[in-house]
Amino acid sequence: MSKTFVITGASGHVGKVLTDRLLSANQKVRVIARDANKMKELIEKGAELQQGDVRDGSFVNKAFSGADAVFLMIPPPHDENNILAYSHRVMTNYLDAVKSNNVKHVVLLSSIGTHDLNTKNVVEGLKDAELEFHKLDNVNFLALRPSSFMENLMFQVPVIKQMGIAGSAVKGDLSMPWVATKDIAEIAAKRLLDLSFTGKSHEYILGERNFSYNEATKILGPAIGMPDLQYVTFPYDQAEQAMLQFLPPDYAHRMVQMSKDMNEGEMLKDYTRSSENTTPTSIEEFSKTFAAAYNADAAATN
After folding, report:
1. pLDDT for 120-173, tens place per residue?
2. CB of 257 within 8 A of CB of 83?
3. What is the distance between the terminal CA atoms of the chain, rounded to a whole angstrom?
4. Mean pLDDT throughout 64-82?
5. Per-residue pLDDT at 300
6. pTM of the entire structure?
7. Cα–Cα distance measured from residue 49 to residue 8, given in angstroms and rounded to the nearest whole number
8. What is the pLDDT of residue 302?
9. 37-58 tens-digit pLDDT
10. Which residues pair with 107 in a beta bridge?
11. Domain extents for the chain?
12. What does the alpha-carbon distance between residue 179 and residue 150 come to, in Å, rounded to a whole number?
């Protein structure tokens, strides 16, 4: 017997793969997106589109109607100057819609680092969201806490092209978990199709293994024909100035704060790797995706 699932952020890396998996399992899937053009493929496969903005509470409430379970994520706030206020606004809409529609199962795409109740980096809103959902009665809530996305390594493409090096504010020798977004989607699909989680819980998703930026560069460099590619750790102020080219000031500041929290260890304190939270996609496999994006970007600029 099929159930009705509502997927927020369905045009993103995780949401798109998750929706495809649920449709393949013959489930009813309602996708929420601002851009209908990005949903054409999923609509053709049977997804129902609710087009709108999750900052609109009445829209979210309507979209959650009749849902057996919802998958929640906060869309990247590229046009917001106060990231925490934006996160709180979206999550308040989600909370109200879950309560008013009596949704029994909620999966939140959260993040590693939300264990830190004092965090002031980009995951602060997710930390607050977890705490608020824990207060709800009669709702089974699961927070997925993935590590850094391998797809975030794509931000190195313009750095490499412009500077001939890879680099960020994270220390080059800091070993940490990285996960491919498709592996997050697979876990989310399993949890939603099973719906066996009860009460309030969280689950780490940590990728195939830990590695550092230095180690990643030694794999990504040869994949793009640059075997001698080096990684450089940027000073925090320089990294923040660079981010201001494409991010609002508050977002850029919180992203750099996250790098600092990683370097100082707080961001990565809470997890323990196990077979259950280890996923299959390796950096070696992802390097093929990275190389394809790098070469496509090169072709577009020629």
Report:
1. 999 999 999 999 999 999 999 999 999 999 999 999 999 999 999 999 999 999
2. no
3. 52
4. 93
5. 53
6. 0.96
7. 11
8. 43
9. 999 999 999 999 999 999 999 9
10. 71, 142
11. 4-149+178-205
12. 5
Residue at token pair 């449709």: 23
- Tell me if the domain spanning 4-149+178-205 has CATH number 3.30.460.10: no
Residue 79 confidence (pLDDT)? 84
Q: What are phi and psi of 58, to 5 degrees?
A: -65, -35
Q: Do the Cβ atoms of 22 and 192 come closer than 8 Å?
A: yes
Q: Is the pLDDT of residue 1 over 80?
A: no
CA dihedral sign of residues 45, 48, 50, 51: positive
Whether 87 contacts 129, CB under 8 Å: yes
Distance CA 297, CA 210 (A): 28
| Cα 109 to Cα 44, 146, 177, 202, 234, distances in angstroms | 25, 8, 17, 10, 29
Task: For the chain, give the mean pLDDT.
Answer: 96
